[in-house]
Amino acid sequence: MSAASAAGASTTAGGKPNATPAAANATPSAGGALIEAALGNLSKTLHPYPDSASYTQPWIDAAALIWGGADGGGALLAFDWDTLDYRPAMAAQMPRVSSDGKTFTFTLRGDLTWSDGSPLTADDFQFAYEQGDREDNRYVQLDLLQDIATYRTPDRQTVEVALKDARPREVALGIVNIISPVPKNVWSGRAWNDAASNPEILHPSVVLGPFRIQDFLIAEHATFVPLDRYYLGRPTVPLVEILANQQPTVAYESLKSGRANWVHALPPAQYEEAKANPELSVKEWTAANAPYRSLEFNLARPFLSDKRVRQALAYAVNRADLLDVADQGLGVPQYSFVQPTNQRWVNNGVDRYDFDLARAGQLMQEAGYRLQNDQLLGKDGQQVRLQVVYPTSSGPRTRIAAYLQQQYRQLGIAVDAKGLDFNAYTDQVQGRHDFDISLAAYGGGSIDPDLGVKAQLITNGQQNVTGYSNPRVDDLFKQAAVELDSARRKQLYDQIQALVNADLPSHYLYALNSVDAFSNKVHGVTTHRGNRLDYNNALLAWSVDQ
Amino acid sequence: MQLRRSAWDRFRRDRASVAALGMLLLVATLSATAPLLAAGVLHSDPDRFVRTDAGRIATLRAPSPGNLLGTDDLGRDVLARLLYAGRVSLLVGFGVALMSVAIGAPLGLLAAYFGGWFDDLVNALVQVVLNVPLLFVLIVLSVLLAPGALQLALIFGLFLWPSTARQVRGAALSVSRRDYVDAARVLGASHVRVLRQHIAPNVASVVLVMAGIDMATAILAESSLSFLGFGVPVPLASWGNMLSLSQDQFRAAPWLVYPPGVMIFVTVLCVFVVTDGLRDALDPRMAFTR
Amino acid sequence: MTSFVVRRAAQSVVLFFIVISGVFCLVHLTPGGPEAALAQNPRVGVDELQQLRQRFGLNDALPVQYVKWVTNAAHLDFGQSYFYQRPATQVVGERLMPTLQLGLMAYVIALLGVPLGAVAALHRGRMADTLVQLIVTVGAAVPTWWLGLSSIVALNSLTGWFPNGQGQGNAVEWLKYIILPASVLGLGGLVSFARLVRSGVLDTLGEDFVRTARAKGLGPSLVASRHVLTNALLPVITLLGGLLPSVLSGTLVTEYVFAWPGVGRLFYEAATSRDYPLLLAVLTMTTFATILGTLMADVGYGLVDPRVRYA
Q1: Which residues pair with A440 in a beta bridge?
Q2: Which residue of A has its CA nearest to C92?
Q3: Contact A518, A278 (CB under 8 A)
Q4: Most C-contacting residue of B130, B247, B265 (CB-CB within 10 A), to test interface
Q5: Residues of C in contact with A254 (CB under 8 A)
Q6: Do the Cβ atoms of C125 and C174 come closer than 8 Å?
Q7: Is the separation of the CB atoms in A90 and A108 below 8 Å?
Q8: Which residues from B are below 8 Å from C18, CB to CB?
Q9: A with B: how many residue pairs have Cβ under 8 Å apart?
Q10: B172 touches C at CB < 8 Å
């Protein structure tokens, strides 16, 4: 169930040998507990194969602790967020690839066990695949599983996965790596999706590790204790506690008082204070898959269907100002649909639409709109009005809306800022396409453009709210999905970025920094290029003073 | 005539009430003339970004001669916003109190006096309003309408009148069935006369107290709503949303937090003092119990 | 009075159904359904969103959905929560106790407003009155969430400790954790009680029978306890019944700020994720409680003040 992440350039099937387990089996867990003051809920389910409704960030966090988790040790390979490539995890080494590039054969390590001591074998992988592949089980990654032709386990140590088509290396590895094992002895015969008859869904009794559950009070907190025999090593911390639903102010206060020692996604308001506090340390970095903000134009609207108008609206916006105002400067400007830190795929040569108010005014004139008494008049002689829609649950986007009101006033445009509750916003923008400009936020997940952002840009894509449709772009995406040569694949994505920027269905603003705050008692924390610090089995390496 | 004049005299003599009334008038005037003050005196604007010499937006600047209360997270002048915010908060507060008194008091009074099916009807209305989840009404309205302070005041008013109605009904119940009321009716007094002369004066105190409470509730409810993500729309300021949008900033930027808080406190205090003073002044029995 | 109570009780049942039906329609007609959460995932297709709606029965006509829901609700079966994937009643049941405890403690604290109001009235115009007025204003002029957050911050700065969530273990721990959120929640009620009681006591002090009693030589405290308080109880009773809905909605903000695992927070979560079964289960419960509270207040008047006669 690892977020099917992809890596890039290298074409050989060989990779790094097994990473040395962080804290070798010798040292027992000592020291203080790792306590996270979490701003969100706890996961409502602990099912190893969640459906779309259950596949939430809290679920990913819980899975990182008990199911080997996101890009950690929970599958055959792990995505390494330092090298942005795959390395072996439960597989003893990188897979043997058949000559046609479609079949991957893995040999499992010999030391794999479940939390109850029973051996973890290929049967557990096979069982998981068969369950996950069933339509009625509604696994969230089912669409990718359907690219698998056959999944076989000839013996208890071997897993052989064959794809339907040859795919680029990074995408292929991502697909074959989707399946994480599920303890067959515990789960077979039980209802896969019915929490009432299958208690394993809410309280799994047998897990992979590195931790198992001690307490899980869904509205309050959860505690986890380390397993002795996790194959990558025993975690150094004796206890992990997650405090749920903390208000940002309260979370920060917990950190200061010592009630908690980790806050993920520290609110910008506390950033300066935390950095100045000698008892805290703030880790800040911009991930390769960082969340990012953009302005999405509704191309179906007559005013916005003219490219010059969209260009003018883009030129009128100052990214640096926006970053200051909305996210207190904690980000880096972004110019295309690929984050600037995603060096594997970003095209730095695209049109940037840097702030140029004069040019914006000029473009509006060229498009046939004239400025009179500080009002931009349309063909009908009325002032141009734009409706900017955003979710009120997002403070930064609320501020962006206020900024746009002020800024577009300089072009003579009146902005109606329509803030809606999140579900109503989604319904209005994605469901009914009733907006002029939508303030969007995307990101997280895979760095491979085929697995995420494509949905926004292909004709009738699932997240295509702008109505963008360019057959050339659609074609290039199709080619890139099966292009085996990495250099050529990069070229294809470069071309797509150039085309999209020229067409300007969205104006990309900036990628956000990740900011985590720790008490100085926590040691061993290093950042990498993923947007969550607990990737890369980090939890094995961290320790906390008493 | 006599009674009214002495009521005003009594009110005038209560120094605290007079001072509070004066304060309220001052706040109301400042808020009403906010555009003039902001543009003419402060040379400022509640929506415009203040820029630094280097051309960046001056976010979260501490108070300075140019910006007496500093700037907020969007680089806007806090004092100008505070003045404009007064208009929104006072509109919501007074609007709600007015609606609550205009709808709730009469309904409660008549429900107690007439009883029977009219009381049942009022009760039914009260139950409907009390049980409709405000959150959903607000979501629906935000989609359908362009939201504004007036709409918010209207919605709050429509949701807050039941508490006044219930209180007034309770107070009126004990008076409505008394012997002297029955006697008056027997002697031929009309309903209107009885209501006006015997019952209304006795519930006036409750109405005044509830008006004060409703006003405070309205201003605070708007603040809680914007804390949860609803409330007055961007870019309008209200004291309530200035407070909730600065919730993380007590230490980092206290100039964002204290001014709206102080304004709310002072307004609510003055409203309470004035309503208590009015209540005391209008009650003829008070003249004897001092 | 019995005929009144019987009539009202019967009406309450009918009202309950009407109100719940209206709430059902409002909730379902609010734009944005539960599928919005899934729309964030780039690989969830439009058909999958529709499938979700289908599975939840959301593509049926509203009257059909209503009939299904009502027939089940009559057996206290509120369906499966969309996101918890467990019976809605089970989820609500888990959160009920913490909210009831919080609510009860808040009521206790709010009732402190009664003696405060009485004291203010009896010492009208003097120091005690002004002091109470001040306390009451502070309580009313500060938004709940602000009071909650600043008390947490203040307590933390001063003592390095603050209550977060529920206390485990013994009664002392429990009290330590509940006292702050309950005070924050109860403050609104305390203010209302204090002001209404003050006003009510002052009214009664001016009544003829009280003046007669004093003229007859009964000491002030005796007058107060025997006549005045009984009559000042009317607004208190109204408020007790009327406070129920505001405590229930007040718990939303208080529970949000203090991470209290109660029904208020559950309501907010269910509302923002459009988890209809859970939402309707909570709303049914609160509607029932409100209607009951009002009825009990009406009965209370009749019992406390013999002059109250219902038509």
Answers
A1: A294
A2: A219
A3: no
A4: B130
A5: 164
A6: no
A7: yes
A8: 128
A9: 69
A10: no
Q: Which residue of C has its CA nearest to A393?
A: C272
- Examine the predicted complex and report whether its ipTM is higher than 0.90: no
- Say how far apart CA A71 and CA A86 lie, in whole Å: 9
**Is A157 in contact with A121 (CB distance < 8 Å)?**
yes
Flag whether residue B235 sits within 8 Å of chain A, measured between CB atoms.
yes
Of how many residues is chain C composed? Answer: 311
- Give SS3 for B91: helix
Q: In 3D, which of C142, C86, C146 has the Cα closest to residue C266?
A: C86
The per-residue pLDDT string of chain A (546 residues; one tens digit each, 9 = 90 and over) reads 333 333 322 233 333 333 333 333 444 556 899 999 999 899 999 999 998 888 888 999 999 999 987 677 899 999 999 989 999 999 999 999 999 999 999 999 999 999 999 999 999 999 999 999 998 898 988 888 999 999 999 999 999 999 999 999 999 999 999 999 999 999 999 999 888 889 999 999 999 989 999 999 888 899 999 998 899 989 999 999 999 988 888 888 889 888 899 999 888 888 888 999 999 999 999 999 999 999 999 999 999 999 999 999 999 999 999 999 999 899 999 999 999 999 999 999 999 999 999 999 999 999 999 999 889 998 888 999 999 999 988 889 999 999 999 999 999 999 999 999 899 999 999 889 999 999 999 988 889 998 888 989 999 988 899 999 999 999 999 999 999 999 999 999 999 999 999 999 999 999 999 999 999 999 999 999 988 888 888 888 899 998
Of A86, A107, A290, nearest to A172 by C-alpha is A86
For A427, the closest of C31, C52, C272 (CB atoms) is C31
Question: How far is residue B161 CA from its own chain's centroid?
Answer: 12
Residue numbers in C near A3 (CB within 8 A): none
pLDDT band at C211 (very low <50, low <70, confident <90, very high): low
Selected for mutation to probe chain C from A52, A243, A430 (highest C CB count within 10 Å) is A52
Contact C43 A393 (CB under 8 A): no
Peptide bond into A340 cis (omega under 30): no
Matching residue, tokens 């509006």: A364
Residue A88, amino acid? P
- Quick one: DSSP state of residue B71? B
- Sign, CA dihedral A312-A316-A318-A322, equals negative
Could you tell me whether strands A85-88 and A292-297 are parallel, antiparallel, or unpaired per DSSP bridges? unpaired
Cα-Cα-Cα-Cα dihedral sign, residues A261, A264, A268, A269: negative
Q: Give the integer Cα–Cα distance in Å for B53 and B72.
A: 17
| Contacting residues of A for C37, CB less than 8 Å apart | 53, 56, 423
Nearest CA-CA distance, residue C78 and chain A, Å: 15
- Of A54, A195, A257, Cβ closest to residue C156: A257
Partner-chain contact C42 A220, CB within 8 Å: no
| Residues C202, B206: C-beta atoms closer than 8 Å | no
Residue C27 has phi, psi (to 5 degrees) of -65, -45
**CA–CA gap between residue A42 and residue A61 (Å, rounded):** 9
**Which of C26, C29, C83, C85 to substitute to test the interface with A, most A CBs within 10 Å?**
C85
Assessment of whether the complete model's pTM goes beyond 0.80: yes
Shortest Cα distance, chain A CAs vs residue C37, angstroms: 7
Instruction: Please tell me the distance in Å from A283's CA to the nearest CA on chain B.
Output: 20
- Give the whole-angstrom CA distance, residue A264 versus residue C130: 47
Bridging pattern class, strands A262-264 and A514-519: antiparallel
Pairing of strands A34-37, A240-243: parallel
Q: What percent of chain C has pLDDT over 90?
A: 17
Partner residues linked to A309 by β-bridges: none
How far lies B91's CA from each of A8, A445, B37, B155, C68, in Å? 60, 47, 18, 13, 44
